[in-house]
Amino acid sequence: MELLIYIELLVVLAAIFIGARVGGIGLGIFGMMGLAILVFVFGLKPGSAPIDVMLMIVAVITAASALQSAGGLDYLVQVAEKILRKNPSMVTFLAPVVCYFFTFFSGTGHVAYSLLPIIAEIATESKVRPERPLSISVIASQQAITASPISAATAALLSKDLLGSHGIELSNILMVCIPATLIGVIVGAIAVNFIGVPLEKDPEYQRRLAEGLIGNSQDAKKALTPQQQRKAQTAVWIFLCGVLSIVLFGSVSSLRPVFADGTQLGMPEIIEIVMMTVAGLIFIITKADVTKAVKGSVFLAGMQAVIAIFGIAWMGDTFFQGNLEFFKSSIEHIVTEYPFLFSLALFVMSILLFSQAATVRTLYPLGIALGIPPMTMVAMFPAVNGYFFIPNYPTVVAAINFDRTGTTRIGKYVLNHSFQVPGFVATIVALVVGYIIVLTMG
């Protein structure tokens, strides 16, 4: 029996590994192929398909795509650039905070792509080692996902299949994860300040400078026209109102409608309704181009995430639910006694899946089945930010490429790269702070 379970586990891991190597929608496709093997070869009953999570992601991504189409993201990037240029010497501390709140607000870490070249440019001009602000900014954009009220990962955690049915509200997650992740990012920014030699003494920078590989600052982006700026600002305000309304509904349960049969409207449905309405209002009021929205980077990345979660999460749920008794008898007492081990499992799984939401949807059902207290699992939420460990995630690669000085790099042994220290510091601090907050809440 145990041998069969280990073979099934190999199938799951192989599907994850191959899907991750293929990239894009490959994770979802190979996850579904793994599911097919589990069901038709090993006879496991299919688990719960992550429909709620997928619908919430679709709604949020649609709204974010509308915002991008209306120029809202470009406007926010210009605002960020002004903030950073006012205090260029503080870029190591300001950049990650800006990235954090941009991700928190938008629900996607992909906004970092627009900010990274600005951060690299300002750091280089200010003779600040670009590795420092770039590395922690990438980590900040990841940490903020586990604090954002509209991120796919938070939506997954709140779904009825997971903590949403165990008394956890959006307010619980925000009260724990916002301070925990923000403190983690700040401590991470302090830590990276001690990484590497000053820029002027870096041999790679000196080599590139001598060879003329580092020219003047990059060309500035074309500024928005007054009309475009008004349109973008309107879209931003509509989007912000949508986010705030979700936070309000999630924090004050009495605001959520109660129907004749006594049931109350759940947060998944509220997120779906509000964000799709936000998208509609942006399109109507700003006259944003719908075609442009579906061709934008946010929409494409978001839809890839939906497909990935569809396959991987369904496969994972099928495997764990089909072998639940084995896991309970084998590791329940260990995880109950040493709950941090479940955090480690989340961290490792996120490295394999490259997705916080997919990690949540794959492993949290096991945590619930093992009897880990719901609030403890909320404190563990930042552990799903482990995909900085292997330096092949798009934002990590982008940060390396945007650094013209060569200080942000992948080391000789691959894993000794620029993002390890800030990543581990921010994640560990976030977990510790989150756990302390949960303990003080009783």
Automatic annotation (TrEMBL):
Alphabetized UniProt keyword annotations: Cell inner membrane, Cell membrane, Membrane, Transmembrane, Transmembrane helix, Transport
Topology in membrane: Multi-pass membrane protein
Localization per record: Cell inner membrane
Residue stretches spanning the membrane: 9-42, 54-77, 89-107, 173-199, 234-253, 265-286, 298-316, 336-354, 366-390, 421-441
Family membership: Belongs to the DcuA/DcuB transporter (TC 2.A.13.1) family.
Taxonomic lineage: Bacteria, Pseudomonadati, Bacteroidota, Flavobacteriia, Flavobacteriales
Annotated organism of origin: Capnocytophaga cynodegmi
Name of the featured protein: Anaerobic C4-dicarboxylate transporter DcuB
GO CC, alphabetical: plasma membrane
Transferase as UniProt keyword: no
Molecular function (Gene Ontology), one example: C4-dicarboxylate transmembrane transporter activity
Organism domain of life: Bacteria
